[in-house]
Specification:
single chain; 3 domains; Retrovirus-related Pol polyprotein from transposon; 5-stranded mixed sheet; 324 residues; 4-stranded antiparallel sheet; alpha+beta
């Protein structure tokens, strides 16, 4: 309340419960359970940028600056008529948010619409923005300070604040949207690999779902990711949970593969690339091959309903900024 994010309310229209979520370090973060309210809210279909395309755009940049907005959603005020709908109850009374709270259905889309509008002159040229994550990028170091000044002037104009603890300025590489980006190329965040390597064999369906979810975030770096995880997908649909020998073997193979993931690099301009398509019962796989280095990266797409030649079109579009 002292920060101006909430205020007391006497006649709320909706009431949600408070939930305490444990964080690293033993602390707890107060969240509001907006699930019922979210069900009643119409969906804001404003698109979010594709993470893979944003990350690809950083390849080959000599200087990078990563920034994170300070409590980003709380910097956007709610309309007066909507505040009574984002109310919550505590032991000391009922309160409502005056700024956009975390956990609200359309918070991401609303914030993305804002940053797309205010940073339109810079997006794609020297910055990339995904909701409250911002990155300034430059092929030449000498241009970096000027581009930072341009961005800061926009932040000041619209009174948006940054979290200094989550900012890194003029670095050669760092973590952006969960991936490690450098001038050399793109790497998996080691912490994401460690989480999978430290996992024990699942003992129930929920743990299998947790495993497949973590693997899916790394699938871009895994050749034949769907095939390697096939036993896990079948187990999620099985009537009875049984961690068979085949599942254990697939689990160990995944860990072994993840321990040696390679760096994804941008192809040299002018090199000849060949697109290979492979159609099977469950997936359409596409791969780009560099005829000089013979390196291959696999990308898995849903099984097409159109003829294979037509399905090649979205594959080419997806690889507009390919990395191999």
């Amino acid at each position: 309340m002292a920060a101006g994010h909430i205020q007391a309310i006497q006649f709320p229209e909706w009431l949600s419960n408070v939930v305490l979520v444990p964080e690293l370090g033993g602390k707890c973060r107060m969240c509001i359970d907006f699930r019922e309210l979210n069900k009643a809210c119409p969906k804001n279909f404003y698109p979010l940028p594709r993470i893979d395309q944003l990350v690809n755009s950083t390849s080959g940049c000599e200087s990078l600056s990563m920034m994170d907005a300070s409590q980003g959603y709380h910097q956007i005020m709610l309309a007066l008529e909507d505040r009574k709908r984002v109310s919550f109850i505590t032991s000391t009374g009922t309160f409502c948010y005056v700024a956009i709270p975390f956990g609200l259905k359309n918070a991401d889309a609303t914030y993305q619409r804002l940053v797309d509008k205010i940073f339109r002159p810079q997006i794609g040229r020297n910055i990339e923005v995904y909701v409250d994550d911002m990155l300034v990028k430059n092929k030449e170091v000498r241009d970096h300070i000027a581009d930072l000044e341009e961005m800061f002037s926009i932040l000041r104009k619209y009174q948006l604040k940054l979290n200094p603890g989550k900012c890194a300025f003029e670095v050669k590489g760092g973590c952006f949207l969960g991936l490690m980006v450098t001038q050399r190329g793109i790497e998996v965040n080691p912490l994401k690999i460690k989480v999978v390597l430290d996992m024990k064999a699942p003992t129930n369906v929920n743990e299998v779902q947790r495993l497949t979810g973590r693997i899916s975030t790394l699938s871009r770096f895994i050749s034949k990711a769907a095939k390697k995880s096939l036993h896990f997908f079948k187990l999620q649909k099985a009537k009875k949970f049984e961690w068979a020998t085949s599942c254990e073997q697939a689990f160990k193979e995944h860990k072994k593969y993840l321990a040696g993931l390679s760096l994804l690099v941008k192809p040299i301009q002018g090199d000849t690339l060949y697109l290979h398509l492979s159609n099977c019962l469950s997936k359409l796989a596409s791969a780009f091959e560099d005829c000089r280095t013979r390196h291959i990266t696999i990308q898995h797409l849903p099984k097409p309903r159109a003829p294979l030649s037509i399905q090649a079109i979205p594959s080419i579009e997806d690889w507009r900024t390919p990395v191999i």
